[in-house]
Amino acid sequence: MKKGVGLRLDVHKILYNIYRFNKILESKSIKKIIIKHKKIDIAFIYNVCMGTMRYNFHVENVIKKYVDKRPKVKEYILLKSAITQIVFLDFKDYAVVDSTVEVAKKLKIHHGFINACLKKIAKKKKELKDISVKFHNLPYWFRDKTKNLNSYERKTLIENFFDKPSLHIVFKNKKNFLNFEYDIIGTSSKSGFLKEEIKINELKSLKYGLCWIQDFSSFFPINNINIKNIKEKNIDLCAAPGGKSFQILSLNKNIIMNDKSKNRIELIKENLDRLKFKTEIFNYDVLKLESKEKYDFIILDAPCSALGTIRKNPEIFFKKKGPEFDYLCNLQSKMLEKSVNLLSENGSILYMVCSFIDCESTNQISKFLSKNKNFYLEKFITKKDDNDYNSMIKNGMMFTLPSKYMGFNIDGYFAAHLKMKV
Question: How do beta strands 397-400 and 256-258 pair?
Answer without folding.
Answer: unpaired
